[in-house]
Amino acid sequence: MTVLTPLVLVCAGGTGGHLFPAQSLAYALRERGIRVALATDARVDAIAGDFPAEEVVTIASATPSGRSPLRRAGAMVTLGRGFAQAAGAVRRLNPAAVVGFGGYPTVPPILAAQLLKVPTVLHEQNAVMGRANGFLAKGARVIATGFKEVRGVPEKATARRVHTGNPIRPAVLSVAEVPYPALDAASPLRLLVFGGSQGAHVMSEIVPAALEKLPADLRARLFLVQQARPEDLTAVQNRTLAMGLAGIEAAPFFKDLPSRMAASHLVIARSGASTVSELAAIGRPAILVPLPGALDQDQAANAATLAGIGAALSIPQSAFTPDRLAAELVDLFEAPRKLTEAAAAAKTARILDAAERLAALVVETAATP
Questions:
Q1: pLDDT of residue 17
Q2: Which residue of 155, 186, 231, 299 could cross-link 271, Cys pair, CB 3.0 to 4.6 Å?
């Protein structure tokens, strides 16, 4: 007679910010002999083959936000359909525990698990709890957090809170011990710029304009690696190629981004939870531009965790101008000690074994009546 090992259902929406930490947890659970299934939305199809799950369950999902009552009503109908699908999946899979990583695609499976009395663990990656996790928090057994301090947890949430850190993907762990690149008067200055799908456009507008304002001798030492949206790519390349930089590489996406972070002297980026955690893991100084307009202002809170220890400079997008950025770059590149000190400060915030910590917490929760 074959005895199956326990199964944990991991729930994450189909974006990297949720899927990368979920994937890291899945690997850590498999190392412990735990079977893993993934519940997600249709966006995950492109990367489902990379996720270490024995089954991927696609759940109908939508985000009930926006000003249109009709769209909100339609989203609620979709979420209701997703709940029915999720309830069937939870009954069939019979998981020992269900883990959610935030985002509305996790609401149907986590809510179904809670109503079916299956222990649930929520992982909140950001320094401000998101709305989906906030909705589910009251019924959770445990809330694991990526940052030590997390605002916005509902008062009615009585779940135990445990600071595990944000699980780091293997590609980041593999370069976490790469030393900070040597920086002297003759060495190239390696600048990495990225912003994700929502943030790359402002980087394409501001960064080239700021580099034009740098002294010529500084530009001659600068090697720029920049992510740019496809529609911005040609303009970024044409503008920067005319500046006399030491080198320029621009592309819509870099598969080896962790390695490029490790090779950089300075990073300019948004401040999503994964980005902030990866900067800390590798130990690289940054200029962070939080995504504006978010109701929770989670990226601003994330950036503050590094800015508060001297590892990063946080600039609101309203103040992220070519003049301001050029001044900050001159200040940092002409005083290399500031960069090396910021790199060392970033490493003080890193938690490299966050996936293992979270896996242990999930196993403990599953085993507790």
A1: 79
A2: 299
